């Protein structure tokens, strides 16, 4: 593994499988009465959030605390893009405090990369979402959920997603989740299809390692997992599509459409779900929808990432057993 | 600066061609020949060097008044002299904006006082660069600064009626409107060239058509009203095709390209290093090839630096927050040698045309862009084309260091610059 996790592209197939396997170990710890590992005792992790995201921050915070890290939450709201110095200033403050890892969420694409490469700071950098660029831990938790459901919790250990057909639907253009997922799922051997109106697909998408379709109904019967992305209503005002109703009719997932999917296929959503727009309540509440499992998997996956970036080379279970015998 | 007196430049290739001695007396070239006696003249031994007419930059940002922390007329003209320039046109997007006779005269006077090169202020097309109301174009022309070039550079004159009126109005005194072609709605939130790389990096795309659609409109407007238009910093293959078509149709259009658009591509943005953030953005290899060919065949008339100095803190941040622009005066000739001369696309005579004769003609810079011959003003640039070295911004005369070439090897080095017979640069050092 590299020293930082900025992009899904930083991960080889073996890196990614190692993270998923480690996340399963972490999940076992969560089933115990004492859910904590001593792994990161004495290490300081900062959650540096320039952009609000309570869900992601809490997920990282839970992961850090279960690994016994000292956690600092730093909400540097808003000011960064208008006043360019604040990221650097903040980084230097953190450097002076001697932090070991920075989990950064930023509205500007590339800010975590810059933080990791500019020499402002020495800590490991974990990208918790930057602009419309990447959200690698989100795609790891998605892959974790898919592997559990499509390959099996124990059967999946050591394995990737070879041959699984994953469909990602919605606002691909503005989605860091889609970018990360296309890369990671490709690395793991899955076949990815993106479905969206042409206005919500990036110009260069033809060069991505995936297929593209404008027709959701044609793709659904061939999907093992369908990931619905959130579509913001503001996009309608910027003429990305005509009306909410038209969008829902063409690209929304309702019960009838879900019925076209194979029996075993799952519905995923990175949350928060806006019921009615891209997904109906019927679909969101069905047991094929994995949104809640994704949240749980997020903590295990982030524990695995932090452990592997900061914890050294021994397998996580060694630490777990040490804790048990104490 | 040394006082003007007699200087003999001995054995330089004039415009890259014949080896000649050039004798300067006072402000003028008095003799060009072979075996000229030094007499009392100081001698510059110039074997192996190339003597060009002093370079003229039609597109420089000097930042004074208002952003003297980035650059001043003094530091900017020192940078110009270091790069072989004897005249620069100073863009109007200062604080206050150069949209009145008062501001353009102030800039012009500062240029005269400091004297490292001639400073020709560019006047804003519209009041405050706001694109709504024509600035007093005539008053700026009639002022001591004698403004001939008008531009809202940094912004596009996107209102077709305002652009039409400006093109018509400046005909009264032979002015030219220099357009920064950027359709504003198509470039909202734009951070880099729109394409494969922007999609991957998640940076807002800046489509080529945003530039091309404005150029297409403006050449048609110029044709319609029988006026001439100059297009700033072409960056796409499509822009080249439109200008080529317009010229073939007889439309009076001229165009410029920057050195960085002749060399760098959007692949560099993968570093997220804001040193590569520039307006218009770095494009693709295909665009670079088209721009080089167009400069070679004369579709693009000139090289202009778009020298855009910014202080360190405006670039030492994340990409989205960083200022757009690069410094260029001190590296322009090296980049042109590297991309155009060493590739066989342009001769040194061609370089003299694109970097001196043509820009002086477009901007009507009197005394500049003249042949190297007896009786002409001694505005001259001497360079050593065999020099090889890496770019070290620590040695820049510019107040700012935002160069994309730090550590890169570039050929050629300007050793001497003469402004009306006085050395502003001597043996690579400012005089
Ligand atoms: Zn411009």
UniProtKB/TrEMBL annotation, chain A:
Residues bound to L-aspartate: 83, 176, 230
In which domain of life is the source organism classified?
A: Bacteria
Q: Which InterPro entries match?
A: Asp/Orn_carbamoyltranf_P-bd, Asp/Orn_carbamoylTrfase, Asp/Orn_carbamoylTrfase_sf, Asp_carbamoyltransf, Asp_carbamoyltransf_Asp/Orn-bd
- Ranges for domain Aspartate/ornithine carbamoyltransferase Asp/Orn-binding come to 163-309
- The record lists carbamoyl phosphate as bound by 55-56, 105, 135, 138, 271-272
Q: Where is the Aspartate/ornithine carbamoyltransferase carbamoyl-P binding domain?
A: 3-147
Write the record's keywords in alphabetical order, separated by commas: Pyrimidine biosynthesis, Transferase
Coiled-coil region: none
Pathway named in the protein's UniProt entry: Pyrimidine metabolism; UMP biosynthesis via de novo pathway; (S)-dihydroorotate from bicarbonate: step 2/3
Q: How does it assemble?
A: Heterododecamer (2C3:3R2) of six catalytic PyrB chains organized as two trimers (C3), and six regulatory PyrI chains organized as three dimers (R2).
The entry assigns this protein to a family as follows: Belongs to the aspartate/ornithine carbamoyltransferase superfamily. ATCase family.
Q: Which PANTHER family match?
A: ASPARTATE CARBAMOYLTRANSFERASE, ORNITHINE CARBAMOYLTRANSFERASE, MITOCHONDRIAL
Return the protein name: Aspartate carbamoyltransferase
* Gene name in the database record: pyrB
UniProtKB/TrEMBL annotation, chain B:
Mind naming one GO cellular-component term on file for this protein?
Answer: cytoplasm
Which positions does UniProt annotate for substrate binding?
A: 61-63, 93, 279, 310
Task: Please give the pathway this protein is involved in.
Answer: Pyrimidine metabolism; UMP biosynthesis via de novo pathway; (S)-dihydroorotate from bicarbonate: step 3/3
Q: What is its EC number?
A: 3.5.2.3
- Domain Dihydroorotase catalytic: residue ranges: 48-236
Say which family it is in: Belongs to the metallo-dependent hydrolases superfamily. DHOase family. Class I DHOase subfamily.
Name the chain's protein: Dihydroorotase
Q: Whose protein is this, by species?
A: Streptomyces spongiicola
């Amino acid at each position: 593994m590299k020293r930082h996790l900025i992009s899904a592209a930083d991960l080889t197939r073996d890196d990614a499988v190692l993270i998923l396997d480690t996340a399963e170990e972490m999940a076992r710890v969560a089933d115990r009465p004492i859910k904590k590992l001593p792994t990161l005792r004495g290490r300081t992790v900062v959650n540096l959030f320039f952009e609000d995201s309570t869900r992601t921050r809490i997920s990282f915070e839970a992961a850090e605390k279960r690994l016994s890290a000292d956690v600092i939450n730093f909400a540097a709201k808003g000011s960064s893009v208008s006043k360019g110095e604040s990221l650097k200033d903040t980084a230097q403050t953190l450097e002076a405090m001697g932090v070991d890892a920075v989990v950064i969420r930023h509205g500007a694409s590339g800010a975590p990369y810059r933080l990791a490469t500019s020499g402002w700071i020495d800590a490991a950098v974990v990208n918790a979402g930057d602009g419309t660029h990447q959200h690698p831990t989100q795609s790891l938790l998605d892959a974790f959920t898919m592997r559990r459901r499509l390959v099996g919790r124990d059967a999946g250990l050591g394995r990737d997603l070879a041959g699984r057909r994953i469909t990602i639907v919605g606002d691909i253009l503005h989605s860091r989740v889609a970018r990360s997922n296309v890369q990671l799922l490709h690395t793991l051997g899955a076949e990815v299809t993106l479905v969206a109106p042409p206005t919500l697909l990036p110009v260069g998408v033809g060069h991505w390692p995936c297929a593209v379709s404008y027709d959701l109904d044609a793709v659904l019967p061939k999907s093992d997992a369908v990931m619905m992305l959130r579509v913001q209503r503001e996009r309608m005002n910027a003429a990305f599509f005509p009306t909410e109703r038209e969008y829902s009719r063409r690209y929304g997932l309702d019960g009838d459409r879900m019925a076209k999917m194979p029996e075993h296929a799952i519905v995923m959503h990175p949350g928060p779900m806006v019921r009615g727009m891209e997904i109906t309540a019927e679909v969101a509440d069905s047991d094929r929808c994995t949104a809640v499992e994704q949240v749980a998997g997020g903590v295990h996956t982030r524990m695995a990432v932090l452990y592997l970036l900061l914890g050294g080379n021994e397998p996580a279970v060694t630490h777990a057993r040490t804790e048990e015998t104490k | 600066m040394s006082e003007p007196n007699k200087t003999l430049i001995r054995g330089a290739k004039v415009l890259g061609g014949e080896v000649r001695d050039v004798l300067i007396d006072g402000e003028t070239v008095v003799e060009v020949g072979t075996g000229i006696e030094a007499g009392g003249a100081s001698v510059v031994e110039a074997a192996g060097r190339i003597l060009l007419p002093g370079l003229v930059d039609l597109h420089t940002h000097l930042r004074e008044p208002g952003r003297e922390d980035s650059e001043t007329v003094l530091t900017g003209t020192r940078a110009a002299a270091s790069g072989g320039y004897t005249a620069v046109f100073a863009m109007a997007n200062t604080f206050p904006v150069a949209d009145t006779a008062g501001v353009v005269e102030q800039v012009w006077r500062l240029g005269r006082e400091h004297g490292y090169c001639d400073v020709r202020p560019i006047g804003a097309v519209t009041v405050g660069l706001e694109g709504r109301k024509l600035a007093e174009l005539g008053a700026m022309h009639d002022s001591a600064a004698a403004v001939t070039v008008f531009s809202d550079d940094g912004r596009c004159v996107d209102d077709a009626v305002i652009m039409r009126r400006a093109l018509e109005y400046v005909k009264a005194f032979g002015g030219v409107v220099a357009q920064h072609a950027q359709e504003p709605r198509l470039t909202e939130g734009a951070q880099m060239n729109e394409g494969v790389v922007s999609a991957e990096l998640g940076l807002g795309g800046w489509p080529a058509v945003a530039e091309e659609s404005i150029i297409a409109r403006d050449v048609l407007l110029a044709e319609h009203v029988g006026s001439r238009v100059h297009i700033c910093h072409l960056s796409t293959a499509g822009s080249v095709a439109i200008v080529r078509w317009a010229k073939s149709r007889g439309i009076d259009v001229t165009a410029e390209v920057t050195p960085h658009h002749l060399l760098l591509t959007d692949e560099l943005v993968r570093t997220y290093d804001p040193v590569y953030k520039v307006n218009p953005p770095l494009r693709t290899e295909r665009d670079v090839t088209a721009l080089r060919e167009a400069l070679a065949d004369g579709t693009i008339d000139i090289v202009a630096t778009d020298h855009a100095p910014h202080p360190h803190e405006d670039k030492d941040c994340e990409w989205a927050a960083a200022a757009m622009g690069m410094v260029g005066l001190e590296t322009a000739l090296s980049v042109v040698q590297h991309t155009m001369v060493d590739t066989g696309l342009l001769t040194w005579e061609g370089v003299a045309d694109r970097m001196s004769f043509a820009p002086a003609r477009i901007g009507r810079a009197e005394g500049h862009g003249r042949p190297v011959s007896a009786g002409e003003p001694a505005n001259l640039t001497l360079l050593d084309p065999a020099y090889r070295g890496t770019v070290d911004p620590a040695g820049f005369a510019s107040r700012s260091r935002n160069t994309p070439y730090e550590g890169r090897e570039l050929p050629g080095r300007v050793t001497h610059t003469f402004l009306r017979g006085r050395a502003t640069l001597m043996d690579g050092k400012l005089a």
